[in-house]
Amino acid sequence: MRKGERLEVVELALGGWMRLGRRAPRRWSAGLAVMVMASAMGALTGCASVKSMAGMGSAPAAPPEWTISPPPDSDDAMYGVGEGLDVGTATRLALRDVASKLRVSVSGVIRSQTSEANGRVDSAASSSMMSEVQKTEFRQYTLVQSAPAPSGVYALVKVDRQAFLNDTRERIGRMESLTTQLLATHPKPTPLEHYVTLQRARPLLAAQQGLFLMFKSADLKPDDQARQARLQKLLADADSAAGKVQVAVVAGPDDADLRGVLAGLLSDQGIRVTEQAAGAQGVLEVAGPMETSKFGQDVVVRLRAKLSLKDGRGSAIGAREHLVTAASRTDARMARQQAVAKLQADLKGMGLLPSLGIQPLSVQSTQP
């Protein structure tokens, strides 16, 4: 509001008060004067506020074009954009943006492979593949541009894709070396030893498979192709090894319930199960001694399931003991049934090999 306009408002307000005051009774004309004066001051203040707001800073500048449309990825470079409180934070978030695009790409390939295999891709293997991709780090990158952002700084990074692929080759090489060492422990393995060895190596095989998904066909050198061929053969062997194994599950008459649990666990893996040790490639001995006690009105059972796996030559492959406790208001038989059901759920949750005290190889052991 201009100066002349403000004076006009005051004059109108005061003039109106004076005219009204001459007509109003004395006992309330003074109070009315205060009210009119307050209105006039409010008008002045309001005008000043409007002027103040109109004079505030202009709207923030639009973000740079490269934050919306970064350069396209190529065979030699990958780009990412990040926004953070400072350049360092924005750069890390930009690198995370590049990794996120890689994960989305690999996840799409895994879903496609699962669809083509009619869902027969092992969920644990898929998890291992994605887990390894999520550990992706970029050691060679360049901060291309930065610019002010509403909450700090924008950053555009460029990752050297060929250097990243060479780092990935090194990761695959370390996993391949550890897998080779594991297979060398049994130069002439029995079918059961071969199955167990491949299952122990499966996390490494799945991780290598996931890393190879970050390569395009044109990126694969002859050595890469040879490695990938060896990997595919090992994965195929791991899938088919179970069908070449027959295991006898042996238990006493009081432990028939435990025998059924373990037989089911083996069958779920594709291993053939028999009751006769003769001619089998392995023997799984099962025993389930239990202790019974009273706790108030409950019958409490402590079931100690002892599992021991040997190959056809009698050599120990794995062994483990599981302690399960259950209670029943009825009797010990009902309590044991509950204990066996809990044991079955536990064994399925941990998997066949860990249930027998055999630990798969950890991908973490291949970290430099």
Question: What this model shows, in words?
Answer:
54% of the residues lie in helices and 20% in strands. Helix 4 packs antiparallel against helix 5, helix 7 packs across helix 8 and helix 9 packs parallel to helix 10. A hairpin with a 4-residue loop joins strand 8 and strand 9. The chain has 368 residues and is α+β, with helices and mostly antiparallel strands. The two termini are 72 Å apart. The protein is built from eleven helices and nine strands. The longest helix is centred in the N-terminal third of the chain and has 30 residues.
The helix/strand order is HHHEHHEEHHHEHEEEEEHH
| Low-pLDDT ranges | 1-59, 115-121
What portion of residues is helical? 40-55%
| First-to-last CA distance | 72 Å
Enumerate how many helices there are, as a single number.
11
- Average pLDDT taken over every residue: 82
Structural class: alpha+beta
Tell me the Rg in angstroms.
38 Å
The profile of the biggest β sheet is:
6 strands, mixed
Indicate the overall shape. Answer: elongated
Give the tags.
three-stranded antiparallel sheet, 368 residues, 9 strands, six-stranded mixed sheet, elongated, alpha+beta, disordered N terminus, 54% helix
How do you describe this structure in short?
The protein has 368 residues and is of the alpha+beta class. The protein has helices at residues 3-23, 26-54, 65-68, 87-116, 123-134, 161-184, 191-212, 222-240, 256-268, 332-350, 352-355, and strands at residues 77-84, 141-149, 152-160, 246-251, 272-274, 282-287, 290-295, 298-311, 316-328.
